[in-house]
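Risk mitigation, structural track. In case the binding assays with 1,3-dihydroxyacetonephosphate fail to produce interpretable data, a predicted complex structure has been prepared as a fallback.
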Amino acid sequence: MRKQIAAANWKMNLSQNEAETLLDQLLATEHSLSANQEAIFAVPAIYIPLATQKLVGKTNVYVAAQNCHQKDNGAYTGEISASMFASVGVKHIVLGHSERREYFAESDALLAEKVNAVLAIASTPIFCCGEPLAIREAGTQNTFVEAQLKNSLFHLTAEQITKVVIAYEPIWAIGTGKTASSEQAQEIHAYIRSVFASQYGQSIANQISILYGGSVKAANAKEIFSQPDVDGGLVGGASLVATEFAAIINALK
Ligand code: 13P
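Fallback model:
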C-alpha cells in the first residue's frame, strides 16, 4: 500500500515559544501511526532544529522544509539549499506551494529545477499543484493541473517519480474554509494518477502518494482521506491546533 501522509504546513506562523508549545501539546495527544503512515511537519526553517529535537526517536514522523533554493550553494543571500536542509536531517521539502507560485513568481520551469535539486540529494519533494477559482469555474482544472505536472515533473525517470509526493491544493479551498467535496477531490486525484499512468505506467502511478490540501480539518479529514486516490492531506490552519492535527493524523487510512 502506498504511503498515507498527514503533512502540516505551518507557513509563516508562530513564535518559537508557540512552536514549542504546539509540538509539546501534539506529543501529549493521542495519535498513532501504522507502518504505511507518516506525519510530516513543514515548519518555518528557523524552527527546524527545535522540531527535530522534539520529534527525535519518533517513528514515521519527519520535519520538512517549506521551500528550498534550486542551487546547491553560492552567492544567493537569504536562501537555503536542499543539501543544507539534508545536512540538518531534513529529507522532505515542500515545493511549488500556490503561495510561492503567486507571491514569489515561481514558475513550472523553476520548480523543475528545485525538484531536481531535492531528488539529487535523495530527499523527497512534496510537489504542490492546484487551480485557481476561475479555472475551476471554467471547468478546466484537469488540463491546468496536468500542465503543472508535465512541465515540472515529466522529465523525471520512473524511478525518480516514485520518490515524489504530490499535494493537490485547489487555491479556492486554501484558508477559505471552503473544502473541495470528497467527490471533487477523488475525481481530480484519480485524474492526476491517470496522468502519471499514461506517462510512467499504472504500477508506477499506483505508488505515488497524492495528498489533498485546502481547509482540511478534524471534522472533514476522515471523509476526504477515505477516497481511494486520496492518500492523506497537506494541512495549513488546522495543523496549528494540536487536537485538530492529532485527529487528522488519526483519520489516515
Ligand atoms: P489551509 O489548510 O489553511 O486551507 O491551507 C492549506 C495549505 O495551503 C496547506 O499547504
